[in-house]
């Protein structure tokens, strides 16, 4: 994928966000009156973001229009992105399921799924690691750190 | 100072801190040695575990992970030509050549000895220099601090990014995210969009793990079809090839001292980091070597130069952080976060407000080197075995540790959502050429900037010219301009060289 196209889109979005920060008064609520004001620094940062985004965006746009050859760093290799989406999906499911089924029940499935995604096929050791690790973490954190990981709530 | 250091030693020589250092060294070496995992990842994952222990134990443990992690990177570099950390790239070139010649033991030995020597020398410099610098920086008021922070943003943004605008944009994004939530000065809620969960801003630990650690896991997931490389220590029938003799160490000692000096100097400058130190020291050692032709083909001197320089950065990168509150690189930023979480605000006052703690940490820094030497030397085989574990055993565990670490910070499931969001953001930033480390530094330093800017404005009132009345202001403006100019020149030179070569 051509990163220059992404640059143009991304910098445009950042410029729009910066313009909203510069012009909108609804992004801040309440607060005391000071010399500086609550939105002084955010607006300075927004101005800087417009400058840097415009620099990046214009450079990329110029290269696109001139149809210059892609440099190595401008090429986004998209191989293996399927795995990334699956991994993020597993993580989101983990976040949703832990409050319901608890840490000890959910974690082995998550660990097993990630191992499977990474090409693990040694079922016995993978299962053992997936079961033992959460138990150790759960009891270790509750006994030594006084951190109580979520438990079954059905 | 020596009294303080002695009391520091007495504080650190207790069961808790020593166990923390041992655990930190072991974890650091293992994480550093595993290709695809770096020391910084280990620190971020271990960080939440240290919340519940004394700062002396917690911080020394994290520093032990840092030091051992940088060294650990050289193990995979030497044995399988895959640097665990970018700074070990040159170690991989010479170290792997020695491994192929059946001299892995020699390469691992010199790498360990030069790492420890470099770290010790840099730590001594840190101990001797930090307190006097902090005494000078105490003179700085809010106006000077504003310029100092602007200088830090400029230097880190210009030097650390893929390009100057990308580096500075990363810094601005970090600054913007730091301003989400209730303003500590005015009490106003900014960018919360009515969500009360955002009032306290983004929780630091999940954000940190998401931005710095998880993208590395995602990278491994993306490259999951790349074959696994088994690490093995090759042995030569000649015992002399499997170890480094005192004579050999003495012959490269001058190189180690010089490279450590380079590493210490580079580390003390914000934004350059251990890779730059290793490259400069290696180049200098090659230039002055009697056997420059051996460099790149298995030179013991080359490994000594690269390793002592990149490890010296560990100690000296603490100098700007502890004296000026400026983290020089991503690890220093992370450690600064750890200091803040433990109630220690890095800066000149730390030497006066937490004298015992800071000198205990210094003493711990020195003792860590001895433990690193002993543990690494006696456990090469064990570390190689653990680091050779297949990725489908390691990364599910890393995922769960990241989850637990993020949850531990506030015992709140919303922090996991923060972790997921910043994981996606951190990976996207890398893909688009933005620098996550600069983002973190921007995030950490912004509250200090806003606070000092507010105080400075209260001092100057409407006489804005008073901002430029102090010579410090002009010094920092000049330094910022110099760094931007030299960075521009460096980049121009770097882009023109390949073109010249092509012609």
Number of strands of chain A: 1
Largest sheet of chain B: 2 strands, antiparallel
User: How many domains of chain B, as an integer?
Assistant: 1
Fraction of residues in H or I helices of chain A: 55-70%
- The low-confidence runs of chain A, each spanning 5 or more residues with pLDDT under 50, are none
Radius of gyration of chain B: 22 Å
Low-confidence segments of chain B, given as residue ranges, are 499-503
Q: Characterize the biggest β-sheet of chain A.
A: none
Order of helices and strands of chain B: HHHHHHHHEEHHHHHHHHHHHHH
Give Rg of chain A in angstroms: 24 Å
SS element count, helices of chain A: 5
Per DSSP E runs of 2 or more residues, the count of β-strands of chain B stands at 2
Q: What's the overall geometry of chain A? A: flat
The oligomeric status of these chains comes to heterodimer
Number of domains of chain A: 2
Give the N-to-C terminal Cα separation of chain A.
45 Å
Helix content of chain B: over 70%
Using a beta-carbon cutoff below 8 angstroms, give the protein chain pair with the largest interface and the number of residues from each chain.
Answer: A-B, 72 and 64 residues
Question: How does this model look, in words?
Answer:
The complex is a heterodimer of chains A (154) and B (503). Chain A is mainly α. Chain A folds into two domains: 3-74; 81-145, no CATH class. Chain A has helices spanning 3-23, 40-65, 81-101, 103-117, 123-145, and one strand at 28-29. Chain B has 503 residues and is mainly alpha-helical. Chain B has 21 helices and two strands. Chain B has helices at 2-12, 15-33, 39-46, 55-80, 89-100, 104-137, 142-160, 164-178, 204-222, 246-268, 273-288, 300-316, 318-324, 330-341, 350-353, 355-378, 380-387, 391-410, 414-431, 436-460, 471-502; strands at 181-182, 189-190. Chain B has a two-stranded antiparallel sheet with strand order 1-2. At the A-B interface, α1, β1, α2, α3 and α4 of A face α8, β2, α9, α18 and α19 of B. β1 (28-29) of chain A pairs antiparallel with β2 (189-190) of chain B, so a sheet runs across the interface.
């Amino acid at each position: 994928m051509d990163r220059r196209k992404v640059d143009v889109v991304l910098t445009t979005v950042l410029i729009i966000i910066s313009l909203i920060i510069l012009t909108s008064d609804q992004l801040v609520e309440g607060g005391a009156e000071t010399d500086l004001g609550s939105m002084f620094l955010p607006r300075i940062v927004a101005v800087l973001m417009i400058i840097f985004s415009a620099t990046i965006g214009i450079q990329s746009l110029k290269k696109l229009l001139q149809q210059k050859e892609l440099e190595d760093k401008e090429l986004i290799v998209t191989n293996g992105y399927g795995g990334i989406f699956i991994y993020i999906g597993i993580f989101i499911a983990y976040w949703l399921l832990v409050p319901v089924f608890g840490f000890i029940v959910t974690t082995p499935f998550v660990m097993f799924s990630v191992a499977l995604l990474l090409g693990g096929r040694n079922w016995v050791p993978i299962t053992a690691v997936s079961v033992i690790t959460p138990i150790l973490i759960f009891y270790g954190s509750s006994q030594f750190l006084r951190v109580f990981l979520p438990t079954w709530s059905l | 100072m020596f009294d303080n250091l002695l009391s520091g030693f007495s504080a650190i020589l207790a069961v808790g801190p020593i166990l923390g250092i041992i655990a930190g060294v072991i974890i650091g070496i293992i994480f550093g040695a595993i290709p695809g995992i770096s020391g910084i990842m280990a620190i971020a994952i271990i960080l939440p575990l240290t919340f519940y222990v004394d700062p002396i134990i917690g911080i020394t443990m994290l520093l032990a992970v840092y030091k051992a992690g940088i060294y650990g990177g050289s193990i995979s570099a030497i044995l399988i030509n895959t640097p665990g950390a970018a700074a070990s790239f040159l170690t991989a070139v010479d170290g792997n050549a020695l491994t192929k010649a059946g001299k892995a033991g020699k390469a691992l030995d010199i790498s360990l000895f030069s790492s420890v020597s470099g770290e010790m020398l840099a730590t001594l410099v840190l101990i001797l220099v930090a307190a006097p610098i902090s005494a000078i920086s105490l003179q700085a008021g809010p106006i000077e601090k504003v310029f100092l922070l602007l200088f830090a943003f400029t230097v880190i943004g210009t030097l650390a990014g893929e390009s100057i605008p990308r580096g500075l944009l990363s810094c601005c994004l970090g600054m913007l995210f730091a301003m989400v939530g209730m303003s500590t000065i005015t009490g106003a809620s900014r960018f919360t969009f009515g969500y009360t969960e955002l009032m306290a801003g983004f929780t630091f630990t999940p954000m940190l793990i998401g931005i710095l650690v998880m993208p590395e896991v995602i990278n491994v997931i993306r490259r999951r079809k790349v074959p696994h490389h088994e690490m093995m220590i090759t042995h030569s029938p000649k015992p002399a090839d499997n170890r480094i003799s005192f004579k050999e160490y003495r012959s490269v000692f001058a190189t180690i001292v010089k490279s450590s000096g380079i590493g210490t100097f580079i580390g003390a400058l914000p934004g350059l980091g251990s890779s730059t130190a290793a490259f400069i020291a290696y180049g200098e050692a090659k230039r002055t070597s009697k056997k420059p032709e051996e460099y790149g083909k298995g030179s013991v001197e080359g490994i000594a130069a690269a390793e002592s320089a990149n490890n010296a950065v560990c100690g000296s990168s603490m100098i700007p952080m502890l004296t000026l509150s400026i983290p020089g690189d991503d690890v220093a930023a992370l450690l600064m976060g750890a200091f803040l979480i433990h109630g220690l605000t890095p800066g000149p006052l730390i030497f006066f407000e937490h004298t015992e703690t800071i000198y205990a940490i210094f003493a711990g820094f020195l003792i860590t080197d001895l433990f690193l030497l002993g543990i690494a030397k006696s456990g090469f085989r064990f570390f190689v075995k653990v680091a050779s574990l297949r990725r489908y055993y390691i990364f599910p565990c890393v995922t769960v540790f990241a989850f637990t670490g993020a949850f531990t910070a506030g015992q709140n499931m919303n922090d996991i959502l923060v972790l997921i969001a910043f994981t996606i953001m951190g990976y996207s930033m890398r893909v688009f050429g933005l620098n996550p480390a600069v983002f973190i530094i921007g995030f950490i330093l912004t509250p200090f900037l806003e606070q000092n800017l507010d105080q400075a404005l209260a001092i100057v009132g409407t006489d804005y010219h008073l901002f430029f009345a102090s010579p410090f202001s002009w010094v920092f403006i000049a330094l910022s301009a110099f760094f931007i100019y030299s960075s521009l020149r460096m980049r121009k030179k770097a882009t023109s060289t390949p073109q010249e070569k092509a012609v």
